[in-house]
Amino acid sequence: MKKYLVINEYFLPGQSDKSFTKTKVIEADSVDQALSRDAYEAVAGKSDWEKAVQEGRLEQSTSAVYELVSGINELGDDDVKRIL
């Protein structure tokens, strides 16, 4: 299993320029599995953030998923971004 740092942005509907960032570490075999676990938490989670998304009061976007050992953003575009 690898550890992935998942960075999600939360914002009011239609106002993505004013966002809040929430991070979490997820253990998974692949980046796809980490994203699946994160998506499941967004749908079935009970935190205030997740409830607000479920009720439509907030929108959520995953902006990055870093594999912690390499520091590579697995969602990155052509420019490989690292956190180190």
In helices, the fraction of residues equals 25-40%
The mean pLDDT is 87
Determine the structural class based on helices, strands and strand pairing: alpha+beta
Order of helices and strands: EEHHEE
> What's the alpha carbon Rg, rounded to whole Å?
13 Å
Record field, number of beta strands: 4
Major sheet, described briefly?
Answer: 4 strands, antiparallel
Give the strand order, joined by hyphens, for the main sheet. 2-1-3-4
- Unreliable spans: none
CA-based shape: globular
Distance N to C terminus:
20 Å
User: How many distinct helices?
Assistant: 2
User: Strand content of the residues, in percent?
Assistant: 35-45%
Write structural notes for this entry:
The protein is of the alpha+beta class and 84 residues long. The protein is 25% helix and 37% strand. It is built from two helices and four strands; from the N terminus they run E-E-H-H-E-E. The chain has a four-stranded antiparallel beta sheet. A hairpin with a 7-residue loop joins strand 1 (2-11) and strand 2 (19-28). Helix 1 (31-44) packs across helix 2. The protein starts with a strand and ends in an 11-residue tail after the last strand.
Give the key terms.
84 residues; alpha+beta; 4-stranded antiparallel beta sheet; 4 strands; 37% strand
